[in-house]
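Good morning,

Both structures are done.
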Amino acid sequence: DLIREQKERIDAQASRSTLAEITSSLGHEINQPVAAIESLADTAGILVESGDRLEAGRTLRRIQSEAIRVGQIIQTIRRLSSSEGLTFETQDLNKIIREIEPFAKIICKQASLTVTPSQNQERIEVYADRTALEQVITNLLTNASEALERDPSGRERKPQITLSLTSTNQTAVVRVTDNGCGVPTDIREEIFNSFVTSKREGVGLGLNLSRSIAEKHHGWLDLVETGSTGTTFELRLPLMKS
């Protein structure tokens, strides 16, 4: 009876811990499109007041798109936490990188953003859940933008972020690079662990969730370079043909 009671307590605690992680992850990921909706709503209001109905209509459609994205994120995290898994289809990474650029500019509004799709081939096909990949990329962009905002070095530098896509014979490589002050030395080895963060109000689950998504795609997410001149994260995914 004692063993059974102890097991029940352990199972209950594990369930609460899992629920806490999922809830924190959900809040972290939803915060990005919600912030975009807030910014776009302000823009739409200004456009309506100025009488530019055409551009206001376009902005409202972008708000609708971001609202849909919130629902997609909820569904993705729900699939990650269930036995159903993600929805894998053939995806063109070049197209995803191009189409994410307007949203990326909203995320990185305080920095000079360069988006560079692959120039070697028109399509770079991977077998993936599109919404999940977008979550990973936007999380990396958000981290880069926030890293530039909290640069304690005091140096005068123009904030810059680069999102690029390249490929080898078997692998697609997405890189997000910033010119900030780098990841703090004391957390570099643990940056992908749960609840490890350098942000004052961060929960430390974004990179952990992002690496989990990469692994579910038989890929890998890693911190490949960091220092006083900047940081680069790299997402590697197997190509369809491999």
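Second structure follows.
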Amino acid sequence: MRAIYGRHSTDLQNARSTADQIALLRDASRAEGITDILEFTDEAISGSAIDNRPGLRALLNAVARGEVSDVLTEALDRLSRDQENIAHIFKRLTYANVPLRTLTEGPIDRIHIGLKGTMNELFLHDLAKKTRRGLVARVKAGFSGGG
């Protein structure tokens, strides 16, 4: 059975983002003639860690139980933006002989994990710096720096 996974990072993002990803993945699967689909999601949870994402943990548990034939997600960064975690996820899928594919990158292999994993982690690091810069500017302008 195919597993599909969607996630968006924070409650500041469009709440429909995860549902839109799942709809896109469901449509792509149906276009391939696949109708047996397990859906896994995490709403408003960062991709920087695994432990705080019940949807991803449930997906990995279903893989370990042999319930999943393949995994489809919109892009690799939906699974993780952390280099160590994406390698861990890929290793668990590979060990279970479960291929991973994304709509953005296509079939995922070790090269994707190394290169995109690094790029996704750098994006998260750069985003944190830019967010901090923006908050400092708000405080200097006399506004609140946060909630």
